[in-house]
Amino acid sequence: MQEALSILLGEEAKGLSPAALGRLKAQWTEEHAAWQRRSLEGKRYAYWWVDGVYTNLRAEEDPRICLLVIIGVTADGKKELVSVSDGLRESKASWLEILRDLQTRGLEAAPLLAIGDGAMGFWAALDEAYPETRQQRCWVHKTANILNELPKSKQGKAKAALQEIWMAESRKAAEKALEIFVRNYQAKYPKAVAKLEKDRTELLAFYDYPAEHWRHIRTTNAIESTFATVRHRTSRTKNCVSRNSFIGLGFKMLQQAEKRWIAIFHPEKVRDLFAGVKFTDGVPANETLPGDQQDAA
């Protein structure tokens, strides 16, 4: 825990007495509780990145508990913390409690798109709380899951083939690349192909959003660096802490990281989305060419 404290307090962390540390942890817990009660009336988010953060800080009550984090993109294109709670990453109930709380505090408008790993209980909760929100599966997580079903000698070529899908300029080209992958790997590696086909729709959702945002919304990379920082700063911590200390310290570290976040590229496109502009293959639908002309171009 000392390494994490030094990030938040600097040199002062070294001289903290147990009593002073206890008061600090109590203060951070109170700050988190107050933050979790803030009003969300009138808030709108274009995108949510969602994940569960496992750290080397372990809650005494249940070592499986992790930080459940939602980061959103506001109407002006800025990234901000939406929710920081604790719970079980794979549990629908844990995530539904969070989403219901957001609604209770005034977040009536559903985010347009949520991005995350397919293994989370979040998706079932989202379908219940905000069914109109579209889903985008993270290509980094999906690629890793597919490659795990292949022998190492095949992974390099398969990774390149998967990249041909998500780097394609259009949904039609992506679908074609996906079919090629299926054809090449179905016979010998059906489990790998099944993992790809399972989330076909959710993997290609990004084509209906501005191309300027694709680098942000195809993966959860936008928040992975933050999570990596939290894990690193607790890497030397082996002891368990109380639930309140666990969530309070995690919250403060995420707040510290939030100060360094930069806005997404072309934030004006967020305003277009909120104005109801529809996008096809990354450009406004009224600017796209008919299918054959687009291919020729």
Automatic annotation (TrEMBL):
<keyword id="KW-0233">DNA recombination</keyword>
<protein>
    <recommendedName>
        <fullName>Mutator family transposase</fullName>
    </recommendedName>
</protein>
<dbReference type="GO" id="GO:0004803">
    <property type="term" value="F:transposase activity"/>
</dbReference>
<dbReference type="Pfam" id="PF00872">
    <property type="entry name" value="Transposase_mut"/>
</dbReference>
<dbReference type="GO" id="GO:0003677">
    <property type="term" value="F:DNA binding"/>
</dbReference>
<keyword id="KW-0814">Transposable element</keyword>
<comment type="similarity">
    <text>Belongs to the transposase mutator family.</text>
</comment>
<dbReference type="InterPro" id="IPR001207">
    <property type="entry name" value="Transposase_mutator"/>
</dbReference>
<keyword id="KW-0238">DNA-binding</keyword>
<keyword id="KW-0815">Transposition</keyword>
<dbReference type="GO" id="GO:0006313">
    <property type="term" value="P:DNA transposition"/>
</dbReference>
<comment type="function">
    <text>Required for the transposition of the insertion element.</text>
</comment>
